[in-house]
Structure formats: C-alpha cells, structure tokens
C-alpha cells in the first residue's frame, strides 16, 4: 500500500471562517429530506455507466439505484444537494456515519454531479459542506473511497489536504477534522439559510413562469 500525505496542503476545514465560504458563491448547498427522494432518484438515474462506476464502485443497474434511494436513512445520514433553476438536483453528496470506535467517529462521503453541471465548483462545495457538517457532528475523520483513475475526485481530495492510501487501483482518502467551533457552526447555519432562501426563490420563479405560460395561448389568441 502506498501512502501519500500532502502535509503542505492545509485542510480546507481548518481554515478561518472567511475561507469556509471559499469557492463559487453561487453554488448553494441545501440539506435534503425524505421529501426529496424523487429528485434524488432522477439525479442518480441520469448518471451513465461510467459515472455509476465512479460513484458506487460498480456499474449498478437502475433497480439497485431505486433501492439505494428508497432506503437512504435521513435520520442517520445527511444528504446534501445543489439545485438548478429547474429545481433538478445538479449535485448530490451523501454523508454516511460509520459506527463509532471509542472516541473515533468516521463518516464516509460520496458525491455525484450531473455531467452538464461539472467544472463549476459543485462537487467541491458539496465536499466542503460535508466536512463542516462532519466537524459539527463530532466526526473526527472524513473518508472517501474512489478509484485511482478518478482524477477529478483525487484532485478535490488532494486540494482538501486529504491523506490518500492507494491499493489495487482504488484509493482511500482521509481527512482528520478539528473539533467544531463557533465559526464552523455559524458557517453551516448561514450556508443552509442561504440555500433554503435560494430554493424558495427558484420555486417561486418556476411557479410564476408556469402561470405565465398557462396564460400565453390566451394572450396569443387575443
Ligand atoms: C467528481 C465530481 C463529483 C466532481 O464534480 P465537479 O462539480 O465537476 O467538481 P468541481 O467543479 O468542484 O471541481 C473539479 C476540480 O477538478 C478539476 N478537474 C476536472 N477534471 C479533472 C481531471 N480530469 N483531472 C484532474 N482534475 C480535474 C477541476 O479543474 C477542478 O479543480 P479546481 O477546483 O482546482 O479548479 C464529478 O466529476 C462526478 O460526479 N463524477 C462522477 C461520480 C464520482 O466520480 N464521484 C466521486 C466518487 S464518490
């Protein structure tokens, strides 16, 4: 097993409050609930075979994805999403809490972004939010499992200062987290509020546009 430690790269989650908002400001991450299952399903079913392999470690058929989405336990885990203007999920991050071992608490993070929305910082923002949530829920270690060929995810992990262990074409990336503080708690609260507000605006805009469209034929006929 070959271990690469990027000790020169400071983990993003140990920076000060201002840095916690680093990354594109227009990417807003909202916490999802069981009410979002249908949108989650649409998101995951839109991933092609290559993306399913990268996200789930194997090319999973639709029925496995359906089962995965149906059984997500929102009371135990946390799922984050980034919505586009059509209220579709452009990106999804799943933070799954692993059983605690003494004082050590680990959470595993999995992420996917629709192909059409990549390269805009959505994956990084979802990771950043998962790291802050982990800190705020007493997680000491954030973990990502991915293929070594997944150069984009490897890049995000290295950028965050994760310690990476390689074996047989797969990589385990670990980030040791500092305990929660006022900044991390405030940062998460503000991010969530901004995302909820943004979602509400998008929903109203969509309703207004639908209403307008329903009057259009009348307007044209008149
Ligand atoms: C990995 C994934 C989530 C990234 O999402 P994204 O929204 O495009 O990511 P971001 O835009 O935040 O960041 C991409 C970063 O990788 C870099 N990047 C893009 N393609 C790259 C490549 N081929 N090699 C190395 N770096 C690459 C970008 O330049 C950017 O870096 P920067 O922030 O320093 O500028 C997305 O590609 C995806 O859903 N892939 C399929 C599923 C998957 O691989 N999940 C991860 C395993 S759990």
Brief overview:
This is GNAT family N-acetyltransferase. With 222 residues, the protein is of the alpha+beta class. 43% of the residues lie in helices and 21% in strands.
Question: What's the arrangement of secondary structure elements?
Answer:
Blueprint: E1 2-4, H1 17-20, E2 30-31, H2 37-45, H3 49-56, H4 62-71, E3 78-83, E4 89-97, E5 106-113, H5 122-136, E6 141-147, H6 151-159, E7 163-167, E8 170-176, H7 182-221
Helix pairs in contact: 2-4, 5-7
This protein binds coenzyme A (COA).
Textual characterization of the structure:
- It holds the Pfam family Acetyltransf_1.
- Residues 27-181 form the N-acetyltransferase domain.
- This is GNAT family N-acetyltransferase.
- The protein is globular.
- It has a single domain, classed as Aminopeptidase (3-Layer(aba) Sandwich), CATH 3.40.630.30.
- The chain has 222 residues and is of the alpha+beta class.
- It has an 8-stranded mixed β-sheet, sandwiched between helices.
- It has helices at residues 17-20, 37-45, 49-56, 62-71, 122-136, 151-159, 182-221; strands at residues 2-4, 30-31, 78-83, 89-97, 106-113, 141-147, 163-167, 170-176.
- Mean pLDDT is 88; it is low at 1-21.
- The site of coenzyme A (COA) has 22 residues, from helix 3, strand 5, helix 5 and helix 6.
- Coenzyme A binds at residues 51, 54-55, 110-113, 118-124, 146, 150-153, 155-156, 159.
What distinguishing features does this structure have?
single chain, 222 residues, alpha+beta, Aminopeptidase, 8-stranded mixed beta sheet, 7 helices, 43% helix, disordered N terminus, binds coenzyme A
């Amino acid at each position: 097993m070959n271990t690469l430690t990027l000790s020169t790269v400071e983990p993003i989650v140990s920076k000060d409050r201002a840095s916690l908002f680093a990354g594109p400001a227009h990417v807003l991450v909202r916490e999802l609930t069981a009410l979002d299952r249908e949108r989650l399903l649409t998101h995951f079913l839109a991933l092609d075979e290559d993306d399913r392999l990268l996200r789930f470690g194997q090319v999973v058929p639709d029925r496995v994805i359906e089962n995965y989405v149906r059984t997500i336990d929102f009371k135990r885990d946390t799922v984050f999403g980034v919505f586009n203007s059509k209220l579709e999920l452009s990106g999804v991050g799943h933070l799954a809490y692993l059983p605690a071992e003494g004082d050590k608490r680990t959470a595993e993070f999995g992420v996917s972004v629709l192909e059409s929305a990549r390269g805009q910082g959505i994956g990084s923002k979802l990771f950043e939010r998962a790291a802050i949530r982990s800190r705020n829920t007493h997680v000491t270690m954030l973990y990502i499992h991915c293929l070594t060929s997944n150069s984009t995810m490897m890049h995000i992990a290295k950028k965050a200062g994760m310690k990476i262990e390689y074996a047989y074409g797969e990589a385990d990336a670990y980030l040791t987290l500092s305990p929660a503080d006022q900044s991390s708690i405030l940062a998460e609260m503000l991010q969530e509020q901004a995302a909820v507000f943004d979602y509400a605006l998008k929903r109203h805009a969509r309703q207004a546009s639908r209403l307008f469209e329903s009057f259009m034929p009348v307007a044209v006929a008149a």
